[in-house]
Amino acid sequence: MKKLSALLLIALLAIGLVGCGSVKEEGQEAAADTGKTRTIDEIKKSGEITIGVFGDKKPFGYVDDKGEFQGYDIALGNRIAKELGVKVNYVPVEAASRVEYLNANKIDLLLANFTVTDERKEQVDFALPYMKVSLGIVSPKGNITDVAQLKDKTLIVSKGTTADTYFTKEHPEVKLQKYDQYAEAYSALLDGRGDAMSTDNTEVLAWAVENPGFDVGVQSLGDVDYIAPAVKKGNKEMLDFVNGLIETLYGEGFFTKAYNETLAPTYGDAAKPEDMVVEAKPDGYLQ
After folding, report:
1. Fold identical between 40-130+228-275 and 133-224?
2. Can you spell out the DSSP letters for 126-181?
3. How far apart are CA 80 and CA 109, in angstroms?
4. β-pairing, 69-70 with 61-63?
5. Rounded to 5 degrees, what angle do the CA atoms 282, 286, 287 make?
6. Strand (E) or helix (H) holding 35
7. So which residues are the signal peptide here (predicted)?
8. Cα distance between residue 196 and residue 190, in whole Å
């Protein structure tokens, strides 16, 4: 009986080891698949490019009532796919995890309303910009018209955004309430869980237009920054392709047209194309 038990134990251990080995190999295969950056030729042969975008950031990247991606970022994504002669697969990302998606090769390109900063340049390679932006603050009408009024108050921000970084560094006296998704952040503002919300002025202006009772009391805060496509660090082929296309689009006035089609219906008289659109490489812009 003891010999039989021992043999059974050895057999079970062997089965367990084989099982563990099998799981490990599957994991290695999955890692290998996601660990490879696709070339332009591979994307063309596959017939599809995968682009990371926001799904809840109207009017820049969002899903409409029919389940279709729409917005200013989407207009550029569609043109990139057309230039490559492929279909586009949009993958919704969150601000805090969008770089991880890019570095893990879950996406080929990032068009998630991504503001160019020196810190982010260490993580990704930015292409030429297609939009300019600064921070804004939205609150119930008349409540917040100056940053100084936020002292000892609660400001809602999305994790990993320019607003999160700016207020953490420049205004530690302001209590931050952070959310993973923009939709959650705006819901928190509507519910009164915070006194105000800060993100790109382009966004809060659009949101305030659609939400009576709120206004953007602070329309421009911090430096004027640029929004640009991002590729995985070192992916020069994709970077050169996107830069070449954007230079062509500058000459076509593409981004002004995209503004009129995707942003103007939301902003109305609250903003003008020249307030946001970039149609030439900005002086001093360093990638």
Report:
1. yes
2. E---SEEEEEEEEEETTS-SSGGGGTTSEEEEETTSHHHHHHHHH-TTSEEEEESS
3. 10
4. antiparallel
5. 115
6. none
7. 1-19
8. 10
Instruction: Out of 17-31, 238-252, 268-282, pick the least confident.
Output: 17-31
CA dihedral 82, 66, 263, 180 (to 10 degrees): -100
State CA 236 to chain mean position distance.
Answer: 21
CB 247 within 8 A of CB 49: no
Buried b (16+ CB within 10 A) or exposed e, 196-213: bbbbbbbbbbbbbbeeee
Q: Out of 3.40.920.10, 3.40.190.10, 3.30.420.40, 3.30.1380.20, select the CATH number for domain 40-130+228-275.
A: 3.40.190.10
What does the radius of gyration of the chain's CA atoms come to, in whole angstroms? Answer: 23
Read off the pLDDT band of 10 (50, 70, 90).
Answer: very low
CA distance linking residue 207 with residue 119, whole number of Å: 28
The rounded distance, in Å, linking the Cα atoms of 191 and 279 is: 39
Backbone angles phi, psi at 36, to 5 degrees: -105, 125
Between vectors from CA 49 to CA 46 and to CA 50, what angle results, nearest 5°? 125
Tokens of 47: 């017939």
Cβ(95)–Cβ(158) under 8 Å? Answer: yes
Model confidence pLDDT, tens digit, residues 12-71: 433 333 333 222 222 223 223 456 899 999 999 999 999 999 999 999 999 999 999 999
CB 167 within 8 A of CB 174: yes
